[in-house]
């Protein structure tokens, strides 16, 4: 895993609770990334290290800076710190770009639908700009849900793009908390619903791909509708910002004390039921490497030396892991003889 030190070139306020941090590219070796990927930022706040992944809102070969957009989360230590404290010329440590929520520029799809809610627009915005430049024959639809018109991220930039590429880029806005808003063919009161999804998809008479970035409920309803209409989800891709935990998966999980060998030192860690090994190790002030916290990257990969461990919440099969390898962000001990080496 490569680490970089970047300087903040600009801090751009997108709305009342969202900022875009624009980093200057390194002078010698430029950081390469794909639209849709994320950059992992590292901070030390009140003596503790925090690591958080944020999707690029910039687009390769178009934007000269590396941009990530961060929405304030109520009670979120890092998102609030970024919104309140980051300023021009600050120096921030970052990890190399990661993520497989990216475009297939070799795809034969003539139409792409992006589905997003709130800050889920961030990777979609990067991908939309990429497509508008590099795939001039592809029609693009963005279905974007927000609480109100004032909470829309990239509002003016998106409006400019629809004007410039009006023949092939359309936005359908949904506002869940607007009381007085005139509905029309592109603006709707309420939330994205099954009826709208079916109507839009049936109206597109072209091979289509779908990219979803938003809360679990949004993904579920869209995938359910697409499964019904198209018969499969082969052309549906989603970004995961959280692990889906089924309470039944924890029926055989109990409190356990484990041994964690980190940098050659044995550490006894008490892992509470329902808490991942990564979470508990960080609480014990072990500065382990991690990034996505959803089981999609391999930054927190570790080797099980003994005992039994259960991984919960993996959205995608991880056939790249050996039989004795686990991802600590979604790992829970089943026995008291667990020993892990990092």
Verbal overview:
Residues 256-342 form the 2Fe-2S ferredoxin-type domain. With 342 residues, the protein is of the alpha/beta class. It folds into three domains: 3-98, Translation factors (Elongation Factor Tu (Ef-tu), domain 3), CATH 2.40.30.10; 111-238, Rossmann fold (3-Layer(aba) Sandwich), CATH 3.40.50; 247-341, Beta-grasp domain (Ubiquitin-like (UB roll), Roll). The chain has six helices and 19 strands. Strands 4-3-6-1-2-5 form a six-stranded antiparallel sheet, covered by helices on one side. Strands 10-9-8-7-11-12 form a six-stranded parallel sheet, with helices on both faces. α4 (194-203) crosses α5 (216-230).
Secondary-structure map with pairings?
Elements: E1 3-15, E2 18-23, E3 38-45, E4 48-55, E5 66-71, H1 77-85, E6 91-98, E7 111-117, H2 121-134, E8 139-146, H3 155-164, E9 169-175, E10 187-189, H4 194-203, E11 208-213, H5 216-230, E12 236-238, E13 256-262, E14 265-271, H6 277-283, E15 301-306, E16 309-311, E17 325-327, E18 331-333, E19 339-341
Parallel strand pairs: 7-8, 7-11, 8-9, 9-10, 11-12, 13-19
Antiparallel strand pairs: 1-2, 1-6, 2-5, 3-4, 3-6, 13-14, 15-17, 15-19, 16-18
Helix pairs in contact: 4-5
């Amino acid at each position: 895993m490569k680490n970089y030190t970047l300087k903040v070139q600009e801090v751009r306020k997108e709305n009342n609770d969202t900022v875009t941090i624009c980093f200057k590219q390194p002078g010698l070796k430029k950081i390469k990334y794909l639209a849709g990927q994320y950059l992992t930022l590292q901070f030390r706040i009140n003596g503790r290290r925090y690591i958080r992944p944020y999707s690029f809102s910039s687009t390769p070969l178009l934007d000269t800076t590396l941009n990530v957009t961060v929405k304030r989360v109520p009670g979120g230590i890092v998102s609030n710190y970024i919104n309140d404290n980051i300023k021009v010329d600050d120096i921030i440590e970052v990890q190399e770009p990661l993520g497989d929520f990216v475009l297939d520029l070799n795809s034969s799809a003539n139409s792409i639908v992006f589905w997003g809610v709130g800050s889920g627009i961030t990777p979609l915005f990067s991908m939309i700009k990429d497509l508008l430049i590099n795939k001039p024959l592809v029609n693009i639809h963005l279905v974007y849900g927000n609480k109100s018109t004032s909470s829309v991220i990239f509002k003016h930039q998106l409006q400019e793009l629809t004007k410039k590429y009006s023949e092939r880029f359309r936005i359908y806005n949904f506002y869940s908390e607007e009381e007085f808003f005139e509905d029309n063919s592109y603006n709707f009161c309420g939330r994205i619903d099954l009826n709208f999804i079916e109507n839009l998809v049936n109206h597109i008479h072209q091979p289509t791909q779908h990219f979803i970035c938003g809360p679990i409920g949004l993904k579920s309803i869209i995938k359910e509708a697409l499964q019904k209409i198209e018969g499969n989800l082969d052309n549906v891709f989603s970004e995961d910002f959280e692990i889906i935990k089924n309470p039944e998966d924890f029926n055989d999980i109990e409190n356990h004390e484990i041994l964690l060998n980190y940098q050659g030192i044995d550490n006894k860690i008490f892992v509470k039921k329902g808490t991942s090994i990564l979470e508990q190790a960080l609480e014990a002030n072990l500065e382990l490497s991690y990034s996505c916290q959803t089981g999609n990257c391999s930054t927190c990969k570790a080797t099980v030396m003994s005992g039994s461990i259960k991984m919960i919440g993996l959205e995608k099969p991880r056939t790249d892991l050996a039989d004795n390898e686990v991802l600590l962000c979604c790992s829970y001990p089943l026995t008291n003889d667990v020993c892990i080496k990092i």
